[in-house]
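Hello again,

I reread your note about wanting to compare the complex against the isolated chains. To keep things tidy I'm splitting this into two emails, and this first one only covers the full assembly. Below are the input lines as submitted, including protein chains and any nucleic acid or small-molecule components. They are followed by the predicted structure of everything together. The single-chain runs will come separately.
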Amino acid sequence: MAASRYNKIVNISQLRKACRACSLRDLCLPVGLSTDDVQKLESIVNVRGPLERGTHLFREGDRFQAIYAVRSGALKTYSIDSEGREHVLGFHLPGELLGLDAIYPRVNRCSAVTLDSASICIMPFNRLERLAQDVPGLQHQILRLMSKDLSVSSDRATDHTAEEKLAGFLLGLSLRTGGKADLTLVMPRRDIASYLRLATETVSRLFARFQKKGLIQVRRKRVELIDIAGLEAIGGNCDIAAYGGYRQPLPN
Amino acid sequence: MAASRYNKIVNISQLRKACRACSLRDLCLPVGLSTDDVQKLESIVNVRGPLERGTHLFREGDRFQAIYAVRSGALKTYSIDSEGREHVLGFHLPGELLGLDAIYPRVNRCSAVTLDSASICIMPFNRLERLAQDVPGLQHQILRLMSKDLSVSSDRATDHTAEEKLAGFLLGLSLRTGGKADLTLVMPRRDIASYLRLATETVSRLFARFQKKGLIQVRRKRVELIDIAGLEAIGGNCDIAAYGGYRQPLPN
DNA sequence: CGAGTACTTGACCCAGATCAAGCCATGTGG
DNA sequence: CCACATGGCTTGATCTGGGTCAAGTACTCG
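Full-complex prediction:
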């Protein structure tokens, strides 16, 4: 079918090229802005941190007030269902945004907690919105970032095997941390499992299986991606890990 | 836990109240705009249709150019995976938007096809973006709608049993078609199943089971919701069907 | 009225969940 | 500096929700 040719227009290798390491100020949001506009953006940003591991940035049910950007460290967002079980909705790494899903209901639909020591930019939403009104590039960038989260989240909502999900997760994580082959998993297995809708045990077994196949080398929180092509063959069409976002937009 | 009290701030009953039937011009987008601003919006909109069932609005891989709004009829969006299998990503009813996920990659990540005869509004994205720059209410509304899609999609990505999914789907569908208790399923079982990540047979069996429990009355494409409270007890915390969106924002 | 497609129903199967030990790092107090 | 507790992780055994396969059945549309 014609469509499949385009299936991976946004594929792993293209994105890897597009993705580079970023320093503190190199957030998603300012991409494409003039230094002048970046300054305007900075004027409405409050910085908070370092926050120690386990600090909540906001909680489910809180009134929505701001969009957050991660400067350093990592966070997860999660919600608690009616049976009291936690569901991890996303991991958020330096440069990425949180809180976009709260704009509509004006109430946070999830909680956000630091996974290790982290510092954060807080952007009061009404000020950000007003600024976006003046700065076309900012409006554009917000729309793009929300759009990306939308694709990722909807890919996450589609049907994948456990292997596909974990392979996609590892590849995505690698992209988001600068395309390096060795990763440090800041989040415990339980959270990875919850995020991928798997049991902790399944994640553990998959790590073992991938290692036996020579795809990765796992040692506690350190994971080295040995055979990236092999991982892509398994989970390449799974943008699952990208929630929170690639650092850079696609090459023009 | 404290959070669970807020768990269903956005619950079915509240939303039902907030949701009313809508006529052709009563799209999601103009909500909150002055008649003047609505006129500006209308000036950039192209209307197309009626399109006969099975017509593609866009296809995976097409260059992104416009956002679409459904005026009448219904559409589904879907993508084809590397094994050639179709995954339904959403159903889109009158008043709802399509194509928002293509802003980021600038390429459509899914295809959209009419499920029956439908007419559509086409909003060229760069003109829409420029207009949103001038009309704060429009920018705000676009952000809200994207945010909502984000919540729905991320709820869809979390773990639910087959019963929860189908009950949530039916309730959501009812909300989106004006809160009536009797629904017409424009989409075939296969598409419902794909959307909910279930097998067609499972959907069929669940319909039978729900009917035996006295929750619904099914007859081919007609479904009557008999025991709404019962359905809410099963799938109430599942916003799964809402993809494409509630017609109205939350009460103030 | 016949052919195709959508839907239903039953029998069986399997990927991944759950249950149950055990393992191994890190921390804590004696 | 070592017992030993604690929580995260692994591994094995078993179970099960929902998938798959295989027949039907019933609309629908030439």
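For quick reference: DSSP finds nine helices and eleven strands in chain B.

B.
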